[in-house]
Design a protein that fits this description.
- The chain has 280 residues and is mainly α.
- The protein has one domain.
- The chain has twelve helices and no strands.
- The N and C termini lie far apart (47 Å).
- The relative contact order is 0.14.
Length: 280
């Protein structure tokens, strides 16, 4: 199976260089304005994001083998079969994959055990295409959300392909160089404006805009928030480190400390399964 993300690495690198050049050579009226600053690129921050991306890529070389094995086992267990040659199967897969991504992304913000993995992606106080590559080194939390697709009769390679095109699309919404797009596009699709809001630590933006490709699920399920004020990127409590190991595992370490000092199993489960920031 062709891995779209591996094939897209040269496109990612070229896009990063173009965006960096746009900041360096084509500063607009707002760049550097203290009332509306665009941070652009910072060497240490970008190096950390690229390190996280390379680490994620290497870990997934092994992890995807495990994922394919599990998908294949479920596919063999189910009597259902969806023919890859039928056009409507791909349309169905597009919507189901995007729905699965919405719930994976939402749970990754609302359950601390999942957040410990996903927080990596939100740890940068900059917002550019390199931020899209700041990915977890613990990708196992994503597995449960796509298992139903294998049970519905989608072949494993089809599920992996759908996950790849969803993540490929999302790479390009991590930018400040694109403002709001035409209204219809903003209404239907995840856009740089919507995803900037998602990456905001402002109160108004917390736990909003979980979309992969379509904004449909956020609009239907009450988690949509347009970009209405200047976005403050990063975490509510930033970690102030560029060490990739610290970025990758800081929240797991904090979660372990809380669980270890908890008073009883109920409190331990609450630390694991309640939202980030929960205290007894």
């Amino acid at each position: 199976m062709v891995d779209l993300l591996q094939k897209a690495v040269p496109i990612f690198v070229l896009s990063l260089l173009i965006e960096w050049a746009a900041y360096y050579f084509l500063r607009d009226d707002h760049d550097g304005d203290s009332a509306d600053p665009k941070k652009g690129y910072a060497l240490r921050d970008t190096a950390t994001s690229l390190s996280m991306g390379v680490g994620n890529l290497l870990i997934n070389v092994v992890w995807k083998g495990v994922v394919v094995t599990i998908y294949a086992a479920l596919y063999e267990l189910t009597p259902l079969r969806l023919p890859p040659g039928a056009w409507w199967v791909w349309v169905l897969l597009f919507f189901l994959d995007d729905f699965a991504y919405y719930w994976f992304h939402r749970i990754s913000h609302e359950v601390r055990l999942f957040w410990a993995s996903h927080v990596v992606h939100h740890s940068s106080q900059h917002y550019n295409l390199s931020t899209a590559l700041r990915q977890t080194w613990v990708p196992m939390t994503a597995l449960p959300f796509w298992l139903p697709l294998a049970l519905l009769g989608f072949e494993p390679w089809m599920i992996l392909l759908a996950q790849s095109w969803n993540l490929l699309y999302q790479f390009f919404v991590h930018t400040e160089r694109v403002g709001r797009l035409p209204r219809l596009i903003e209404y239907v699709f995840n856009t740089p404006s919507h995803h900037r809001a998602h990456h905001g630590s402002n109160d108004v933006y917390l736990d909003k805009n979980y979309a992969g490709i379509l904004m449909l699920w956020d609009r239907l399920l009450g988690t949509f928030q347009p970009e209405t004020e200047r976005v403050r990127y990063g975490l509510v409590q930033n970690i102030h480190t560029h060490n990739p190991v610290g970025v990758a595992f800081h929240e797991f370490a904090a979660l372990w400390r809380d669980v270890r000092h908890a008073r009883g199993w109920r409190e331990r489960l609450n630390y694991l399964l309640r939202p980030p920031g929960w205290k007894p």
